[in-house]
Design brief:
This protein is of the alpha/beta class. It has 15 helices and 15 strands. Helices cover 44% and strands 17% of the residues. Helix 4 packs parallel to helix 12 (272-284), helix 13 packs parallel to helix 15 and helix 14 packs across helix 15 (374-392). Bound molecules: pyridoxal-5'-phosphate (PLP). The site of pyridoxal-5'-phosphate (PLP) has 14 residues, from helix 5.
């Protein structure tokens, strides 16, 4: 028998309650999601601001189709880079006060591109937070560059590693962590980076849209200049509501990536109409309305949860002020059972298990959105009470 490892690997995943499969979403409107003919309140979306179905964003997409058609037709360096892409880049560069911006088809590709392009010509050391997203960790590991991880958000751990590094060094972290919802001490990290002449890279997939007065993320919220965070990565698939990603930085950095990042050079440019819609999404966030609604929901959830019966059981709500409110369950089987129970109660919260999170840190990753009404949040906490007690009693 050949390729026996395929079924063996699947069997092992099943035995450990770690097998995964995709599900078909029939419809998803506002905070509702329909799966297998059933409707659920969706607490597992990264559409934190409801921008996916914001009228002005959808309208811009349609308008863009009229102007450009549906696809870009080529990679950016051939004929795929349109006025719509340039306008989005210019908007981001201007408001983030960066010299240049470039677009990628996904955040995954952008993270891979950075590590791959740096591995090309020189020896850059990479120091990354232990909990960074798989798209970066995987890229750093396969780059062949010297790579180590520092303890999560730990200044002392980063300093210790920095002191051992010689030569160029990239410090990589996230603005808001995808699975924990907490934030990196970016200002302190940036000071450390500048002292050691390293470059700080911020992956702001979960800060984009949600933080900053124009929704431009952690860099805007904390006033991090290009000098403070020379590599800024953001994605559009989460709170911005579309898809794709960008990297912002010096003209030299962006020109370097444009010349050496294979994920950029050999991949079809984003659909221009979508870039047009992405720009409309950023513009619609400038009134702060959606961010305000999300904040109200976060406050309400934390307040209701603090007096919920869940606190009598061995589950732990991680400390987070963001849309991501993880409930640690610490065992994949229990976590799956709670997720199933919640489903019976009409609440959709995916069980996030190893290897997305470290072993033993399985969790219900609850995400809140501006699309939720206060009564949705009440229903969520009632259902959590029942599900946690039901599974653990
Ligand atoms: C989602 C995510 C990515 C990948 O972005 P996509 O555009 O979805 O490919 C990268 N980094 C972090 C932290 C993410 O959460």
């Amino acid at each position: 028998m050949t390729f026996e490892f395929v079924s063996a690997a699947l069997d092992s995943r099943r035995q450990q309650n770690l097998f995964r499969q995709t599900r078909v979403v029939e419809s998803s409107t506002g905070a509702l999601v329909e799966v297998d003919g059933q409707h659920y309140l969706n607490f597992s979306s990264n559409d934190y601001l409801g921008q996916r179905q914001h009228m002005s964003v959808m309208q811009a997409w349609v308008e863009g189709i009229g102007q450009y058609g549906v696809g870009s037709g080529a990679s950016p360096l051939v004929t795929g880079h349109t006025r719509a892409h340039q306008a989005l880049q210019d908007y981001l560069a201007e408001h983030l006060e960066r010299e240049k911006v470039m677009l990628f088809s996904s955040g995954f590709a952008a993270n891979q591109a950075i590590c791959q392009a740096f591995s090309k010509t020189n020896k850059v050391n990479i120091l990354a937070d232990k909990l960074m997203h798989a798209s970066f960790i995987d890229a750093a590991m396969s780059s062949g560059l010297p790579f180590s991880r520092f303890l999560h958000n730990d200044v002392a751990s980063l300093s210790a590693r920095l002191s051992k590094v010689t030569g160029d060094c990239l410090i990589a972290t996230e603005g808001v962590f995808s699975m924990d919802g907490d934030s990196a001490p970016l200002t302190t990290f940036s000071d450390l980076a500048k002292q050691s002449e390293s470059w700080l890279m911020v992956d702001d997939a979960h800060g984009m849209g949600v933080l900053g007065k124009n929704g431009l993320g952690s860099a805007e919220a904390l006033n991090l200049s290009q000098h403070d965070a020379p590599i800024l990565m953001g994605t559009f698939g989460k709170a911005i509501g579309t898809a794709g990603a960008f990297i912002a930085g010096s003209a030299d950095l962006i020109d370097y990536l444009t010349n050496f990042a294979k994920h950029y050079i050999y991949s079809t440019a984003l659909p221009p109409a979508m870039s047009h819609a992405t720009l409309a999404s950023f513009q619609s966030l400038r009134d702060g309305h959606q961010q305000g609604k999300l904040l109200e929901n976060i406050t309400l959830f934390k307040q209701l949860f603090s007096s919920s019966r869940c606190n009598q059981y061995p589950v732990e709500l991680l400390v987070s002020d963001t849309a991501i409110q993880p409930l640690l369950v610490n065992d994949p089987k229990t976590c799956l059972a709670m997720s199933e129970k919640l489903k019976q109660l009409g609440i959709w919260i995916s069980a996030i298990r190893y290897p997305t999170v470290p072993k033993g840190q399985d969790r219900l990753r609850i995400t809140l959105s501006a699309s939720h009404k206060p009564e949705d949040i009440e229903a969520l906490v009632d259902a959590l009470d029942l599900a946690v007690a039901g599974v653990l009693e």
